[in-house]
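Journal club side-thread
Mid-discussion, someone asked how the predicted structure for our own chain would compare to the paper's figures. Pasting it here so we can look after the session.
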Amino acid sequence: MKLTFLGTGTSHGLPYIGCKCPVCVSADPLNKRLRCSVLIEDENTRILVDTSPDLRQEFLRENISEISAVLWTHTHNDHMIGLDDLRPVTDICGYIPAFASAPTMAHLQNIFGYAFVQNREHAGFPRLSPHTIENRVPFEIEGFRITPIPILHGKNEILSFRFDCKGSTLLYATDCSFIPDESWELMQNPDVFIVDALRWREHPTHFSIEQALEAAEKIGAKKTYFTHIAHDLDHEATNSQLPENVEMAFDGLKIERPNIELPNIEV
């Protein structure tokens, strides 16, 4: 099982438009962050989680032209508004299975109704087959066992996802500010934990670094990566202050158990 961080930034992306803070004007490419999305795959299957506004740019950078399925965590624009960029992908793949909670799927179909029209024989539209998923009820996608686990993003219930495949477990929990009691048990002992860590200071709808570290310790994560990172956090400066088994993610980072492969980035 391999994961690629397509984007690791907040809804603003980094740099923020018009911002002159040290991180936004930094020349370090690790401080350039597109909006959050990840690709999880094995040798046969590619699963996209969320369709960020930067999806086209992310797919071009990683040379992605085919996927097996797409999942959504929630309906905020920075996680779903890039759906139309799947159009050329479905021109290649045909209909792609699409998975979301009932409220999220209803929202997507309201905005992108044309993408969910079935039995469309010609290209020119995204072509998705909708599948509604239930909290804590596992489902299968081509060898991956996926468990949707509810978390809170401020006052809104959204989904994190646990991926189990070939003896490895990966837990993806972006945009998290609180984990309900009934969700902790399903999150235990992942090999890799990807979690929202917006900044050092607390925030009403996202984990701070301290809160993310506490969550990682509570679930017994072997390795933790922070994502959905704001311009408060310089990559190298923040990384140097984290525990040994915790790292800042960055756009293009690839994690493959047991090895970690770094992208070719010119510094």
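Post-session note: The two ends are 28 Å apart (CA to CA).
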